[in-house]
Design goal:
The protein is mainly β. The protein has one helix and 13 strands; from the N terminus they run ββββββββββββαβ. The protein has one domain (2-129). A six-stranded antiparallel β-sheet has the order 4-13-7-10-11-12. The N and C termini lie close together (10 Å). The relative contact order is 0.21.
Length: 130
């Protein structure tokens, strides 16, 4: 649905990061995140991490790429580090490139499964479908 502007935050050693908000629309939810319930049509935001150097943001090479309108399965986790601080909604993609599957022709693809696997198998790993 949306790729937002980075939100600055400082890690525990003082490095400035930019958390890039990615907002998706839920089609299928196979696992609630820390007791929260999401259903078809809900929006959900998670963040990609980047480092801010000289007012420019550099996304880590292990972070997956997202395009507005693509169908995906994404596996997210929650961290206490991030733009909202302790107890905030700091969701991130688990396992970097391996935590996102792009859906094409009824198969799920990512860096680990370049030949594709069934969408059902990708969802069984406990992710959100978009």
């Amino acid at each position: 649905m949306d790729v937002g502007k980075p939100v600055d935050w400082h890690d525990n050693v003082g490095i400035t990061h930019g958390a890039i908000p990615i907002t998706i629309e839920i089609v299928t939810n196979t696992k609630n995140v820390e007791g929260e319930s999401y259903k078809r049509g809900d929006s959900f935001t998670f963040y990609l991490d980047s480092e801010k150097i000289d007012d420019k943001y550099y996304i880590s090479s292990h972070e997956p790429e997202f395009e507005i309108g693509e169908d995906i399965v994404v596996h997210v986790g929650k961290s206490h580090l991030g733009p909202m601080g302790e107890g905030g909604d700091n969701y991130f993609v688990e396992l970097g490139d391996f935590g996102k599957y792009k859906i094409t022709d009824q198969k799920a693809y990512n860096e680990k499964h370049r030949e594709g696997k069934s969408i059902e198998d990708a969802l069984k790993e406990s992710g959100f479908g978009m």
